[in-house]
Design goal:
Blueprint: E1 2-3, E2 9-10, E3 24-26, H1 27-36, H2 48-58, E4 78-80, H3 89-97, H4 102-140, H5 151-161, H6 170-186, H7 194-199, H8 202-210, H9 218-228, H10 237-267, E5 273-277, E6 287-292, H11 296-306, H12 309-317, E7 323-328, H13 329-336, E8 342-346, H14 351-355, E9 362-365, H15 373-380, E10 384-387, E11 398-399, H16 412-429, E12 442-446, H17 450-457, H18 461-469, E13 474-478, H19 490-501, E14 504-509, H20 513-518, H21 532-538, E15 545-549, H22 554-568, E16 577-580, H23 587-598, E17 603-604
C-alpha cells in the first residue's frame, strides 16, 4: 500500500498471482481498472504524473514511456520490471478491491452475507412453524387424529387476533387461527402482517413502520432476501440491511411467535415439573429411544404410543423392562414438560457422546442441528438411526416420515408405530452390546412460562417491584446453539455465574439450557450462588435459572418481559432486560439475537459475528484490514 499524491492510499498489483513474477506492467490498464471501480482519473484523485510516481514507488528502476497528455485520454504504456516480486492470490484479491469506494464495497459484502444468513434462519424456524401450523389445521379439520389440547391458549390468542368465538366449536376457532398464521407465513400480495399487529407492542410497531421494515410475509422476505443479494441486483448496503431487519421480524413473529402459539394450541402448554437430566439418567435394560431435532407432531405420537400398555407389553415380551425416551436438542425440551417419559440429555454438539455410551437402541431425527457424524458413531454400537423429515436425510439411515407434500399426515400414528417397532427390533439385535453410562445425573425444574409466573406470584407485580427496588437487578434470556469453535458450553456457564452473582434472574431455552440443567443451575440448590438479595426474592422454591423450553419458546421469555413492562407501564427498552447467545453458531442464532434487538433489548455474544470485513480504520475488532 503506497500513498498517492491525492492523499488516497492505493494498492497496485503488478503480478499474475500464484507467486509468478510479471515482466511488464500495463499502466494504461491500471488506469482503466481505476476507472472501472469508480476512481476518476484527474486532479481530484490522481493525475497522470501522480499515478506514475505511485508505480515508480512500488517498482524502482522501472522505465515509464511517454503517455498521452492530460485530458487526451490515457495511452497504453509499458513498464519494464527490473526486480521481480511475488504475491499470492489472497493479496491479489484484497488489493484489487482496495480502491475508492472499497469501504462501501466491504459493507455491501457483509450486508449481503448477513441478509442471506437472516433469510436462512427465517427458513429454519419458518419450516418448524409451517409443519406445526399444517398439523393444527389438519387436526381442526379431522384430517389428523390428534386431540387439540391447548383450548385456553387458543381462546386467549384469538381475542388478540379478533377471531370470533361465540357459538363456535374449538376446532372451528383453531382452524381460523391456523389460517391467519399460515397467511402471515406465505402471503404474496402486500398486506397487514396480522401476527405483528396482534402481538407486538404498539411502540415497537411504530418504530418498525418508520424504518420501513414491516415484512409482507415470511416467504416473501426470504424470497426477496435471496433475490436482492444475487449478482448484479441490490448494490446498496443500507437497502440490504433493511431486508435483513425485515427477515428478523418475520423470523420473530412467524418462526417464533406463530410456532409457539401453534405448539401450545395443539399439544398444550405443559407445566412446571421436575425432570432428570444428563447422561447418567440413561437406563440399562430398557428399549432406549432418543428423539432429536425440532418438529413435535410425529414425536408426540411416538412418545404417547410408546408409553401405552400395548408397547409396554411388547417391550417386556423381548426381555426389556419397558420403553424409555430421551431428548436431544429441542425435541427433547419440547417433550420433557408435556410427557412424563422423556429425559433431556444434551444439545446437538454432545449427540455423539450420548451415542458413545452404547445405551441407545434407536435414534429418531428430524430437522436442524442433526450432524452427519452421528451415523459413524451409531454404526459402532449398532444403534438404529431413523430420519422422519423429507428435508433432512442422513446417508445410511432408514427414512420413515412425511412425504414432501405431507399427503401422509393422516398416517402419523401408523408412522409412529412403525418407528417403535424398529426400535424393538434394534433392541433385540443389540443384546450383549457393551454399555457404559457415566454416573452423572441431576434434577432440573423446567416448564416456566408467563402463565406459570403469574400462577406462582399471583401477577407480574412482585417481579416488577423487585426490579424497581433493586432486589432483582435484571432479567437476562440466555439461549442459543453451542459452537464447537469455543470451549464447549464454558461461555454460557461463565456468563450465568456472573449474572446470578450480581442479582439477575436467568431465562433459558434451547441448546444453551443444557449445561445449565446439567450443572444444577435450574435447581434451587444453585440459589447459594446468587446475590443475597436475589436469594431472598427467589425463596426456597424458585431456582435462579428459569427453563422456558425449546428454541421457539423465546416467545415465552418475551411474554415474561412484556408482562413486567405492562405492569410498570414502560416500554421494553426502558427496562433492565437483556439477551445473550454466548456461543451463537448458525443462521437462526443471528435471527434470534436480531429479534430481541428489534424489540429494543440488547444482545451479547462471546463469538464474533461474521461482520469484521467491513471494519473501518481504528474500529476495534478488525484484523482483516489493518
Amino acid at each position: 500500500m503506497v500513498p498517492g499524491r491525492c492523499g488516497v492510499r492505493h494498492h497496485f498489483i503488478f503480478c499474475k498471482g500464484g507467486g509468478q513474477p510479471v515482466p511488464e506492467v500495463d499502466v494504461g490498464a491500471a488506469v482503466r481498472v481505476l476507472q472501472m471501480v469508480g476512481v476518476g482519473i484527474g486532479a481530484e484523485v490522481c493525475r497522470r504524473k501522480g499515478l506514475q510516481s505511485i508505480a515508480a514507488h512500488s517498482l524502482p528502476k522501472a522505465v515509464f514511456p511517454r503517455t498521452a497528455p492530460p485530458g487526451k485520454g490515457a495511452a497504453i504504456a509499458k513498464v519494464q520490471v527490473v526486480r521481480a516480486f511475488h504475491m499470492d492470490i489472497a493479496d491479489v484479491l484484497r488489493d484489487i478491491f482496495d480502491f475508492r469506494f472499497m469501504e462501501q464495497g466491504r459493507e455491501l459484502i457483509v450486508a449481503r452475507n448477513m441478509t442471506r444468513a437472516a433469510a436462512g434462519g427465517l427458513t429454519q424456524h419458518g419450516a418448524h412453524a409451517r409443519e406445526i401450523l399444517i398439523s393444527l389445521k389438519a387436526a381442526a379439520n379431522d384430517q389428523l387424529d390428534i386431540p387439540i389440547l391447548g383450548e385456553e391458549k387458543i381462546r386467549t390468542v384469538c381475542k388478540a387476533f379478533n377471531i370470533p368465538e361465540e357459538g363456535r366449536s374449538l376446532k372451528e376457532v383453531a382452524n381460523d387461527l391456523a389460517d391467519v398464521l399460515l397467511e402471515d407465513l406465505s402471503r404474496a400480495l402486500p398486506g397487514e402482517y396480522k401476527t405483528i399487529t396482534a402481538m407486538a407492542p404498539a411502540e415497537r410497531r411504530e418504530v418498525w413502520k418508520n424504518l420501513d421494515i414491516l415484512p409482507i410475509s415470511a416467504y416473501n422476505e426470504a424470497f426477496d432476501a435471496y433475490h436482492r443479494t444475487c449478482v448484479g441486483t441490490d448494490g446498496d448496503w443500507e437497502s440490504n440491511m433493511k431486508q435483513f431487519l425485515r427477515c428478523g421480524l418475520a423470523f420473530t413473529f412467524t418462526g417464533v411467535v406463530a410456532a409457539d402459539i401453534a405448539t401450545d394450541a395443539l399439544f398444550g402448554q405443559g407445566g412446571r415439573r421436575t425432570s432428570k437430566v444428563n447422561i447418567g439418567a440413561l437406563k440399562k435394560g430398557y428399549v432406549n429411544i432418543a428423539v432429536h431435532g425440532h418438529l413435535p407432531t410425529l414425536v408426540s405420537q411416538i412418545c404417547t404410543i410408546g408409553a401405552s400398555e400395548e408397547y409396554l407389553e411388547k417391550a417386556k415380551a423381548i426381555g426389556a423392562k419397558g420403553i424409555q425416551f430421551y431428548g436431544i436438542c429441542c425435541s427433547g425440551l419440547s417433550s420433557m414438560y408435556r410427557y412424563e417419559n422423556v429425559i433431556p440429555l444434551c444439545n446437538a454438539i454432545g449427540a455423539e457422546l450420548v451415542l458413545g455410551t452404547g445405551a441407545l437402541d434407536c435414534w429418531v431425527a428430524d430437522v436442524q442441528d442433526v450432524y452427519p457424524a452421528i451415523m459413524d458413531v451409531a454404526r459402532c454400537f449398532n444403534t438404529k438411526v431413523i430420519t422422519t423429515s423429507d428435508a433432512a436425510r442422513l446417508p445410511g439411515a432408514e427414512h420413515i416420515g412425511y412425504d414432501h407434500h405431507h399427503t401422509n399426515l393422516a398416517e402419523t400414528k401408523e408412522l409412529a408405530r412403525k418407528i417403535l417397532d424398529r426400535a424393538l427390533e434394534a433392541h433385540e439385535l443389540r443384546k450383549g452390546m457393551p454399555v457404559f453410562i457415566p454416573p452423572y445425573e441431576i434434577t432440573a425444574e423446567v416448564g416456566f412460562s408467563p402463565e406459570s409466573t403469574v400462577k406462582h406470584y399471583g401477577s407480574f407485580k412482585p417481579l416488577a417491584e423487585a426490579l424497581k427496588s433493586g432486589k432483582v437487578r435484571g432479567i437476562v434470556n440466555v439461549v442459543g446453539c453451542s459452537n464447537p469453535r469455543v470451549i464447549y458450553e464454558k461461555a454460557t456457564v461463565d456468563i450465568v455465574d456472573t449474572l446470578i452473582k450480581n442479582g439477575c434472574i436467568i431465562l433459558t431455552n434451547g441448546c444453551a439450557s443444557f449445561p445449565l440443567m446439567k450443572l444444577g443451575y435450574c435447581n434451587t440448590d444453585a440459589n447459594k450462588k446468587c446475590s443475597p438479595a436475589l436469594q431472598e426474592f427467589l425463596g426456597d422454591d424458585q431456582p435462579p435459572v428459569w427453563h422456558v423450553g425449546e428454541c421457539v419458546d423465546n416467545a415465552r421469555s418475551s411474554g415474561i418481559f412484556g408482562g413486567i413492562a405492562a405492569e410498570l407501564g414502560l416500554n421494553l427498552p426502558q427496562l433492565p432486560f437483556a439477551m445473550s447467545s454466548p456461543e451463537w453458531s448458525n443462521e437462526k442464532g443471528i435471527d434470534a439475537s436480531l429479534g430481541f434487538r428489534l424489540m429494543g433489548i440488547n444482545s451479547y455474544h462471546c463469538v464474533e459475528p461474521p461482520t469484521q470485513g467491513h471494519m473501518r480504520p481504528g474500529n476495534p475488532g478488525s484484523h482483516i484490514y489493518p
